[in-house]
Amino acid sequence: xxxxRRLNSKLLAYLSVTLFTVTLxxxxxxxxxxxxxxxxxxxxxxxxQSLPSDFISADLIxxxxxxxxxxxxxxxxxxxxxxxxxxxxxxxxxxxxxxGVTRLAEGLEDVGEARxxxxxxxxxxxxxxxxxxxxxxxxxxxxxxVTIILVIAMVSAGILTFVQSLGVVLGSNIGxxxxxxxxxxxxxxxxxxxxxxxxxxxFLGRTERWKAIGIVLLGFGLxxxxxxxxxxxxxxxxxxxxxxxxxxxxxENPLLGALVGAIFTVIVQSSSATVAIVVTLAGSNLIGLxxxxxxxxxxxxxxxxxxxxxTIGRGSYALRTGLFHLLFNLVSATLxxxxxxxxxxxxxxxxxxxxxxxxxNAQMMFNIIGVVVMIGFLPIVARLLTKLxxxxxxxxxxxxxxxxxxxxxxxxxxxxxVSR
Length: 420
Known about the structure:
- This protein is mainly alpha-helical.
- It has 21 helices and no strands.
- The longest helix is centred in the first third of the chain and has 40 residues, at 83-122.
């Protein structure tokens, strides 16, 4: 998200609209396939059935196209996969999904960024309050990367201390799992309503706040539509043996699955996007529970790329926060890989038969367990990181400037005394 927010928004919008149109005709989602104009065979079949029996003559039946008997060669052709069609549909859906996530994050920032800053600065007095604040902020901002980058900026500016930021980082990991829970609810049937409502609010809203709310609704709808497009494009893989074997291999080798998840997350710049796609495909039985958990664990590592980039040039305090995020996710993901089978069993125990729901619950439980284990060691970790990344002269000068600026603002706000 750190890099995507710096792309040309108009170019991305035009590209998204173009691929949106291509997706409608190349790989329409499942809920659109139920419409008559997307299924010509349904129209022909329904029109023939609507005719009276007297009009259905032998000539009409003879002229109707008949399906040739399947030969071995025909069976091979039926099993073949059009990779270009799948790739175009998946890319179109991915672009729409990322664009929707980006617009959703931007809209949420416009609505509540100032409130999130106040929340982060006021309710981080201790580690437990910091965790709660991180959960709330990430849930509303819909991105752990956005929350942590915001925290890094506030640490660099002296608004938050390094110790205060650690609890928020832990809480952001739990908050990012809330998005996967929403995706696993299978609410794609309501996507057109969300998109239509978002457009109405955006065009009819008179204030910037209402327009931002419209962008949030539209981004949310585009996000789900992109996921549905990816799911529809990948449908031929459900019976494609090489793909099924690959998913089975990722499940048997969690380290390989985590590597795939980490690389994909670095490319799309969002762990939420990676997990959302995995949950959607798992709901269609394209990805198994073991492979989904492995990819999810890799996404926890890949999301650290944004925060590490955000620490460049921001001083040692911000660097400590970025390193803590990396080390925490790296250690917890390593332990998750080692105990992947136990995590899968626990997810199956608390979930139903829906594999997508199992993966979403596995991510939530994994992050909660990691935070509970780590929160007691935060003071020790803070001291270790302070020794690992010592304070520099530039940091002391920056802190002095911040103190002088704060004192100047305080004196300006104080009422002047009136002499009698």
